[in-house]
Design a protein that fits this description.
The complex is a heterodimer of chains A (216) and B (472). In chain A, the strands form four sheets. A four-stranded antiparallel β-sheet of chain A has the order 1-8-6-3, with no helix packed on it. Chain A has two domains: 85 residues, RNA polymerase II/Efflux pump adaptor protein, barrel-sandwich hybrid domain (OB fold (Dihydrolipoamide Acetyltransferase, E2P), Beta Barrel), CATH 2.40.50.100; 109 residues, OB fold (Dihydrolipoamide Acetyltransferase, E2P). Chain A is α+β, with helices and mostly antiparallel strands. The mean pLDDT of chain A is 91. In chain A, helix 2 runs antiparallel to helix 4. Chain A is globular, with a radius of gyration of 20 Å. The longest helix of chain A has 14 residues. Chain A is built from four helices and 16 strands. Chain B has 472 residues and is of the alpha+beta class. Chain B folds into three domains: 102 residues, Rossmann fold; 71 residues, ATP-grasp fold, A domain (Dna Ligase, domain 1, 2-Layer Sandwich); 245 residues, D-amino Acid Aminotransferase, Chain A, domain 1 (2-Layer Sandwich), CATH 3.30.470. Chain B contains 13 helices and 23 strands. An eight-stranded antiparallel β-sheet of chain B has the order 13-12-9-10-11-16-22-20, with helices on both faces. In chain B, strand 9 and strand 10 form a beta hairpin. Chain B is globular, with a radius of gyration of 23 Å. The mean pLDDT of chain B is 92. The chains are: A alpha+beta (216), B alpha+beta (472). At the A-B interface, loops of A face helix 3 and strand 18 of B.
Chain lengths: 216, 472
C-alpha cells in the first residue's frame, strides 16, 4: 500500500517539472522572450482558444511557426545563442519550469497506485473501435477492462495486429498515450483502477486537494 | 559537361541516399543530406559526415515536409534536389514548387508536367491505347453501376481464358479502400453479384463511397520493366534494357529483380521471349517520345503465359532496382554504368553523349532485397537489433546498405526494415545464380529482438527462389 503523505512530501521537495522546448523543425529562430525568469502562461479560455505566451517563432520557407507556451511556468533557460540562426529539428531552445497543479500531482501519484498496462513493443497504439467509441463518448473511465479482453490495435510499419489486456479487472482511470504517437516499449499505455483501490484513489485526490498549493 | 558548382540536396534516407551521395561524388558535385531523429545511426548520415563533415548533414523532423526540405536546401546553398524514390519522388506539386519558387532549384527527375501526366494511371492507359499499346484490362475508374461492373468482370474472365490462365480470378475492390481492406476475389462470374453487393455495402459503410474497382488478379504472369533514360534536349531517349521483377512478397512487393527480363539463350519459353522484350522496349520508347520524357523512368509491364505484354504503369523516378540494369549495361563498351549519376547529370542539363547503338548488354544481373521480415508469416516486418551484418567482398558483387557494419543497429519502427541491396553479376544466368547462392551463404546477418529471439530475415526465401529465376 502506498503512503500518500510521504509521496506528497517527496513531490513537494521539487514541486516542478522542467520542460525542454525544442525546435519542432528546421528554420530560423526568433526569440520573443529575451531573459530567464519571465512568467509564461498556458492556453486559456473556455475552449483554450487563447494561445499561451509566445516564446519564440521559427521560420522556414517564409512560413512562420509560433512556439507558444503549452503550460504555465517561468523561463529557466534560453538558448539565445540561436537567435536569428538556422537550427535543425530537435535543437533545444528554452526550458520552462512548470509548477505542478493539483491535477498533475494527483496524476503523478496515481501512476504509482494504478495498475499500469505497458506497451510490449515500440509501436503506435489505438483502442479497438468499440472501445474508442466509448472513450470518446464517455471518457476513459466509462470503460471496464478484463484480462484477455481485446483492447488495442498495435500498428507498426503499416501492419496492424490486436493486443489483449492483461491485468486485474477494473476501469481505465488514465490514458497515457497520444493518438498517432509512437510509444516506447515498457511505457505505460493505460492505468487501470481495480475496484478494491477506489477508496485509496479517493484518498489521494482528497489529500492533494487539501494539501497542495498551486504556484502557477 | 555539367557545372561543378552544383550542390545536390539528397531528400531521402537509407541506401538510396547513400547511392545518390556516391553518384554526386563521382560527378564531382557537392551534396547535403537530411536525416531524422530515428535515423541518427543510419549509414547515410555516417556517409555524409565521412565525405563532407557535419556541415553536410541536417536533422529534420520529417523527410516528407516540403517546407523543411526546401529551407534546408536554401540554408545549405543547394542548387538541386534529388528526391530518391518514395517521399517526394512522384509528387508533381513538389517538383513544380522546386522549379518555380522565388529561388528555383533543379528537380532531379522528370519535369513536373510529365510526372503529373504519367502519374495519373487512367491518363497513362489512355495515352497507351492511343498509341495502340496494350494495357492491363479492368476498370480504370470507380464503377457505381452493377451491370457495368458485371460486364467488366465477364470481360476479364474471358481475357484470362484467352491467355491460358487455368484458375481465373477477378478482384472486386472498394475503390476508396487501401492496405488490403475491402478486397474480395471471385473465381466464377456466378459469384459476382453476391460479392459485388457485399463489397459495395462494406465500402459505403466504411468509406462513405460505394465505388468499386474490378480488376484482374495477377497470378500466372511475369512482371517486367523497361529502364528509360532521357536527356532534356528532347532527342536523346534511350533504354537500358529490361528487368524481371516477378519474385515478390504476398503483398506484391518486389524481392528479387533480374536483368535482362528473359533469358531465351538458356531457358526455353512457350513464346518468343526476345520478341516480347523487343516489343515492350519499343512500346516504352514510343510512349516516352510521345510525352517528351526527360529523365530516368520505368515502364512496368505484365507478360501473360502466352507471351502477351500489357502496360501496367509508368514510374517517373529512379527505382530501387536501377542497379541491376546498370550491372549488365555497357556504354561504348565500358562497364561501371551508374544510372543515378546519369540521372543527375541529365537533370542538370547535360546531353546523353551516346546513342542507343553505344549501349550494349553483357551477362545477367540479380538483385536481392535483403529485408528483416518473416516470409512464413505473410512477410511481417521484424524489428530488433542487428548485431552483425557483413557481406563477402567479391568483384562480381555490389552491396548497398545503410546498416553500419561496425556497430549494432536498432531498426527504426518508422520505416520499412530493408537492410540491403545486393547486386550479383554473372556471364550467364547459371553463373549469376551460382554466385547469388554463394553470396547468400557467405553473408553474415545476426541480431535479436527485445525478447531475445533471433532475427528473422528473407534470406532463405531469396535462396529458395533463386533456382527458378526467369523460368516462366
Amino acid at each position: 500500500m502506498i503512503d500518500v503523505k510521504s509521496v506528497l512530501e517527496e513531490i513537494k521537495a521539487a514541486p516542478y517539472e522542467e520542460i525542454e522546448i525544442k525546435a519542432p523543425h528546421t528554420g530560423v529562430v526568433t526569440f520573443e522572450v529575451k531573459e530567464t525568469g519571465v512568467r509564461a502562461v498556458a492556453p486559456s479560455g473556455a475552449y483554450l482558444e487563447k494561445p499561451g505566451t509566445l516564446l519564440a517563432s521559427i521560420t522556414r520557407e517564409r512560413n512562420v511557426k509560433p512556439l507558444h507556451a503549452m503550460v504555465s511556468g517561468e523561463v529557466a533557460t534560453i538558448h539565445l545563442e540561436h537567435s536569428g540562426a538556422f537550427v535543425e529539428a530537435g535543437t533545444p531552445l528554452l526550458v520552462l519550469r512548470h509548477y505542478l497543479t493539483k491535477d498533475e500531482v494527483v496524476a503523478a501519484i496515481l501512476r504509482r497506485v494504478l495498475h499500469l498496462f505497458c506497451a510490449p513493443e515500440r509501436a503506435k497504439y489505438y483502442f479497438i473501435p468499440s472501445v474508442d467509441i466509448k472513450v470518446k463518448a464517455g471518457g476513459c473511465r466509462a470503460v471496464t477492462v478484463k484480462p484477455g479482453m481485446e483492447l488495442f490495435i498495435v500498428s507498426r510499419m503499416k501492419r496492424e495486429k490486436p493486443l489483449a489486456y492483461d491485468g486485474p479487472e477494473g476501469i481505465i482511470y488514465a490514458v497515457y498515450f497520444q493518438h498517432d504517437d509512437n510509444v516506447e516499449a515498457g511505457q505505460a499505455l493505460i492505468g487501470v483502477c481495480p475496484e478494491n483501490q477506489t477508496g485509496l484513489i479517493q484518498d489521494v485526490v482528497n489529500r492533494v486537494h487539501s494539501d497542495w498549493e498551486e504556484r502557477n | 559537361m555539367i557545372s561543378k558548382k552544383h550542390k545536390v540536396l539528397v531528400a531521402n534516407r537509407g541506401e538510396i541516399a547513400m547511392r545518390i551521395v556516391q553518384a554526386c561524388r563521382r560527378l564531382g558535385l557537392d551534396f547535403a543530406c537530411v536525416y531524422t531523429r530515428e535515423d541518427h545511426a543510419s549509414g547515410h548520415a555516417a556517409l555524409a559526415r565521412e565525405l563532407g563533415g557535419e556541415s553536410r548533414l541536417f536533422r529534420v523532423s520529417s523527410y516528407h515536409d516540403a517546407n523543411e526540405i526546401l529551407s534546408v536546401a536554401d540554408h545549405a546553398k543547394a542548387t538541386a534536389i534529388h528526391p530518391g524514390y518514395g517521399f517526394f519522388a512522384e509528387d508533381f506539386r513538389f517538383a513544380r514548387r522546386v522549379t518555380e519558387r522565388a529561388h528555383p532549384l533543379v528537380f532531379i527527375g522528370p519535369s513536373w508536367r510529365i510526372i503529373r501526366s504519367l502519374g495519373d494511371k487512367i491518363n497513362t492507359k489512355r495515352l497507351a491505347r492511343s498509341l495502340s499499346i496494350p494495357t492491363v484490362p479492368g476498370s480504370d475508374r470507380p464503377v457505381y453501376d452493377e451491370l457495368e461492373a458485371e460486364e467488366i468482370a465477364e470481360t476479364l474472365f474471358a481475357f484470362q481464358a484467352e491467355q491460358g490462365v487455368e484458375n481465373s480470378v477477378v478482384l472486386v475492390k472498394a475503390s476508396a479502400g487501401g492496405g488490403g481492406m475491402g478486397i474480395e476475389e471471385i473465381h466464377d462470374i456466378d459469384q459476382f453479384k453476391t460479392v459485388y453487393r457485399r463489397v459495395r455495402n462494406y465500402a459505403k459503410r466504411q468509406f462513405h463511397d460505394e465505388g468499386v474497382l474490378i480488376e484482374q488478379r495477377i497470378f500466372d504472369f511475369n512482371h517486367l520493366e523497361v529502364q528509360i533514360v532521357a536527356d532534356r534536349t528532347g532527342s536523346g531517349i534511350m533504354h537500358f534494357g529490361t528487368r524481371n521483377c516477378s519474385v515478390q512478397s504476398t503483398g506484391r512487393q518486389k524481392r528479387i529483380e533480374v536483368a535482362p527480363g528473359f533469358r531465351p539463350e538458356e531457358i526455353h519459353y512457350a513464346f518468343d521471349a526476345k520478341k516480347v522484350m523487343d516489343d515492350i522496349v519499343s512500346f516504352s520508347l514510343a510512349m516516352a517520345r510521345e510525352v517528351g520524357y526527360d529523365n530516368v523512368g520505368t515502364w512496368e509491364w505484365i507478360v501473360s503465359p502466352m507471351g502477351q505484354p500489357f502496360l501496367m504503369e509508368v514510374n517517373t523516378r529512379i527505382q530501387v532496382e536501377n542497379g541491376v540494369s546498370a550491372a549488365i549495361s555497357r556504354i561504348k563498351g565500358a562497364g561501371g554504368v551508374d544510372i543515378i549519376a546519369e540521372q543527375i547529370r541529365l537533370a542538370l542539363g547535360d546531353s546523353l553523349g551516346y546513342d542507343q547503338n553505344d549501349i550494349t548488354f553483357a551477362g545477367v544481373g540479380i538483385e536481392y532485397r535483403i529485408i528483416a521480415e518473416d516470409p512464413a508469416n505473410r512477410f511481417t516486418p521484424w524489428v530488433g537489433r542487428i548485431d552483425r551484418f557483413t557481406a563477402p567482398g567479391r568483384e562480381w558483387l555490389k552491396f548497398h546498405s545503410h546498416i553500419p557494419q561496425d556497430a549494432a543497429y536498432l531498426i527504426p519502427t518508422e520505416y520499412d526494415p530493408n537492410l540491403a541491396l545486393a547486386i550479383v553479376w554473372g556471364r550467364d544466368l547459371a553463373e549469376a545464380k551460382a554466385r547469388g547462392i554463394s553470396f547468400l551463404d557467405d553473408m553474415v546477418l545476426a541480431g535479436e529482438d527485445q525478447t531475445g529471439a533471433s532475427l528473422k530475415s528473407n534470406v532463405a526465401f531469396l535462396r529458395d527462389k533463386t533456382a527458378a529465376l526467369l523460368h516462366f
